[in-house]
From TrEMBL:
This is GAF and ANTAR domain-containing protein. Pfam families: ANTAR (PF03861), GAF_2 (PF13185). InterPro entries: ANTAR (IPR005561), CheY-like_superfamily (IPR011006), GAF (IPR003018), GAF-like_dom_sf (IPR029016), GAF_ANTAR (IPR012074), WH-like_DNA-bd_sf (IPR036388). The lineage of its organism: Bacteria, Bacillati, Actinomycetota, Actinomycetes, Geodermatophilales. It comes from Blastococcus carthaginiensis. Transmembrane segments: none annotated. SUPFAM superfamilies: CheY-like (SSF52172), GAF domain-like (SSF55781). Keywords: Kinase, Transcription, Transcription regulation, Transferase. Residues 172-233 form the ANTAR domain. Gene3D superfamilies: 3.30.450.40, Winged helix-like DNA-binding domain superfamily/Winged helix DNA-binding domain (1.10.10.10).
């Protein structure tokens, strides 16, 4: 992926030019990566190219305001910070990111919002952080976290650029998730169709009758219908049929 280059004077130029550059990156992420995990990793790699002073990046999912899950990272450092938040039950991704679009930690060691987290995170070599909300879906949150080993690395300009990048990244991620859901849905329909076909041919059932059989077995065994269909398509036998004969 092509890095976004600054102007000759070392700046990033106008907001319009920066927005255009990040739009190109977002489109490249969508076009070059066909699954969610690859898209997340590409977003993390692009963030440290675009946001000034960002040395590392991690994408974190927080579930139920309690479970911290690392989804993409540029090194082991973001993973270690996520594990620390999970262990301590405190930190930017477990607290203010839920209520704020941006959380900036200028001095990790001295931040009084998460004193225990700050003490341990600074021991990992983190000087400052900047966290951006990617999405909130029910009790699940996605956050883009940028790290620097230097305190005060992220000023207002860095924050504005990071916010713009996060907005484009969220769009790219939503597109990848939508495509994945479509592929999964099509795959599930194909499997169910195969299972119905087997039942129709073997037992001379109509399509509706075959689907009713799959539904009944799914309910009896308390398993997803697509899992019942997949097992039938793979083995040729209706799941649980031996138990019912007994």
């Amino acid at each position: 992926m092509t890095a976004v280059q600054g102007d000759s004077d070392g700046g990033f130029g106008s907001q319009e030019r920066l927005g255009d550059a990040m739009s190109r990156v977002a489109r490249q992420i969508q076009e070059e990566h066909g699954d969610v995990e690859a898209t997340l990793q590409a977003i993390a790699a692009s963030a440290i190219e675009i946001v000034p002073n960002a040395e590392e990046c991690g994408i974190t999912y927080v579930i139920g305001r309690a479970k911290v899950e690392s989804r993409a990272w540029t090194s082991d450092l973001p993973k270690s910070v996520d594990a620390l938040q999970q262990r301590l039950g405190q930190g930017p991704c477990l607290d203010a990111v839920w209520e704020q679009e941006i959380v900036r930690v200028d001095d990790v060691a001295g931040d009084e919002r998460w004193p225990e987290f700050g003490h341990h995170a600074s021991g990992l070599g983190i000087g400052s952080m900047s966290c951006f909300q990617l999405f909130v879906d029910g009790d699940r949150l996605g956050a883009l976290n940028l790290y620097s080993r230097t305190p005060g690395a992220f000023d207002d300009d860095c924050q504005e650029i990071g916010l713009m990048f996060a907005a484009h990244a969220a769009i790219a991620l939503a597109g990848a998730q939508h495509e994945e859901h479509l592929r999964t849905g099509m795959s599930n329909r194909d499997v169910i169709g195969q299972a119905k076909g087997i039942l129709m041919e073997r037992h001379r059932l109509t399509a509706d009758q075959a689907f009713a059989v799959l539904t009944r077995v799914s309910q009896d065994l308390n398993r997803k219908l697509v899992d019942i269909a997949r097992e039938l398509a793979n083995t040729g036998a209706v799941p649980g049929s031996e138990r019912r004969r007994d």
